[in-house]
Structure formats: structure tokens, C-alpha cells
Amino acid sequence: MVRRFTEKKLVIASHNKGKIVEIAELLAPFGIDVVSAGDLGLPEPEETENSFIGNAQLKALAAARAAKLPALADDSGMAVWALDGAPGIYSARWAGPDRDFDMAMEKVNTAVGNHPDRRADFVCALSLAWPDDHVENFEGRIEGDLVWPKRGKNGFGYDPMFQPRGYDQTFGEMPAAKKHEMSHRARAFDQLVKACFA
Ligand SMILES: O=P(O)(O)OP(=O)(O)OP(=O)(O)OC[C@H]1O[C@@H](n2cnc3c(O)ncnc32)[C@H](O)[C@@H]1O
Ligand SMILES: [Mg+2]
């Protein structure tokens, strides 16, 4: 049985500001009182699993147990076809300890070189966990292509080098509302909302 979210307060189990902003925007219609893991002083767990869902679940459970509140975690990343899915679950780690995404984007571009296949997917796993260890998992994906030079200052992470297929703007050029019409995160949210909030 899918468990529905009936509480009033939810922890966003993330330490990534760009992500927290997007999750808060996607949750806005539901009138939930949200608090981030950082606000609560929760530690950032080590991401030891080898899948998006595995790491999302690990982060959500750690926060739910520590805060004694339901917690929503997001594990996401960009999977490049020419790199056999890299950086994938290592997308944050490619940016180094300083989380330098200008450097990470250069790294991706250099690794792809002049490979003719420019396809990339953004993937988002969402995990909603409760303090009794019940978990619900969802995944969303958006197909696109790498662009270089990167374009746009909106969003975060790899957004300026990713253009969703069928659009002429990168995620870095789109206003947030447009990204939310089809992003990997918005698609995972659609499923979460249908299963747990509707
Ligand atoms: O684990 P938390 O604390 O949530 O924060 P994080 O930044 O480490 O998040 P992840 O482990 O899920 O790593 C995913 C990385 O993939 C990138 N990423 C995910 N979604 C993205 C998006 O919508 N646009 C651009 N980059 C994105 C971004 O750079 C993230 O740092
Ligand atoms: Mg992380």
C-alpha cells in the first residue's frame, strides 16, 4: 500500500540550495510547512549506494530518523550517453569539494570531446521517508542534448550545458516556471503528488 502524506510539516533532506529552491517551488501548491536539513542542523550523509533511488532513500531515511519528521530527499544527476552514463550519480562529486560547476561542465565537455553523440538525460529520484522507516520512491527523466559553449545563468549545477529535446533554450536560459513544465524533478514530482498528495 502506498502511504499518503497527511502530516503538515516536511523536511527537505538536501544541502543543495538550488535544489531546495526548486523543491519548495514544486511543493508550494500543497501548503506544506517545509524546513531544510541545513535549517535543522542535520549532517550531510555519505552517498554510499550505487543508484539514484538508493542514495535518495539513504538521505531521506537519515533525515526522517534524525528529525522525527517525514523527509523528502532528491538524488539526481546528468547521464551523458557518450560517457556511458557518467557523471550520473557522481554529478555532484565531479564538481569537487568546492562544488565548482564551471569546472565540472568543462570536465564533461572535455570528456565528450568531438564525439558525435551529444545526448544526455537528467534523472531525478525522489524518496519520501517517515520516522518509522516507511519509504516511497519515484523517478523522473528528461532527454536532451549537451550544448557548448554553455548558455544562461538560471538554475544551478549543469543547467547551462543541457538543452531539453524539442526546446531551443538550455535549462540555464529558461525561467524556473518553464523548467518546471518538464524537468526530471517536475516529472518525479508528478508521480509523488499523484501517489502521496492527491
Ligand atoms: O545530496 P544533496 O544534499 O541533495 O545535494 P547534492 O548537490 O549533493 O545533490 P546530489 O547528490 O543529488 O547530486 C546531484 C548533482 O547533479 C546536478 N543536478 C541535479 N539536478 C540538476 C538540475 O535540475 N539542474 C542542474 N544540475 C542538476 C547538481 O549539480 C547536483 O549537485
Ligand atoms: Mg549529494
From TrEMBL:
Q: Name one GO biological process term.
A: purine nucleoside triphosphate catabolic process
- UniProt-annotated binding residues for Mg(2+): 46, 75
Q: Which cofactor does it need?
A: Mg(2+)
Listed CDD domains? HAM1 (cd00515)
Q: Which residues form the active site?
A: 75 (proton acceptor)
Task: Give the CC-aspect GO terms.
Answer: cytosol
Positions annotated to bind substrate: 14-19, 76, 156-159, 179, 184-185
Q: Which Gene3D superfamilies match?
A: 3.90.950.10
What Pfam families does the record tag this protein with? Answer: Ham1p_like (PF01725)
Q: How is the cofactor bound?
A: Binds 1 Mg(2+) ion per subunit.
Enzyme Commission (EC) number: 3.6.1.66
Example GO molecular function? ribonucleoside triphosphate phosphatase activity
**Matching InterPro entries, A to Z?**
dITP/XTP_pyrophosphatase, ITPase-like_fam, RdgB/HAM1
What reaction is this protein's catalytic activity? ITP + H2O = IMP + diphosphate + H(+); XTP + H2O = XMP + diphosphate + H(+); dITP + H2O = dIMP + diphosphate + H(+)
- What does the function comment of this entry state? Pyrophosphatase that catalyzes the hydrolysis of nucleoside triphosphates to their monophosphate derivatives, with a high preference for the non-canonical purine nucleotides XTP (xanthosine triphosphate), dITP (deoxyinosine triphosphate) and ITP. Seems to function as a house-cleaning enzyme that removes non-canonical purine nucleotides from the nucleotide pool, thus preventing their incorporation into DNA/RNA and avoiding chromosomal lesions.
**What's the family?**
Belongs to the HAM1 NTPase family.
Q: How does it assemble?
A: Homodimer.
UniProt-recorded name of the protein: dITP/XTP pyrophosphatase
The root-end lineage is: Bacteria, Pseudomonadati, Pseudomonadota, Alphaproteobacteria, Rhodospirillales
Primary gene name = rdgB
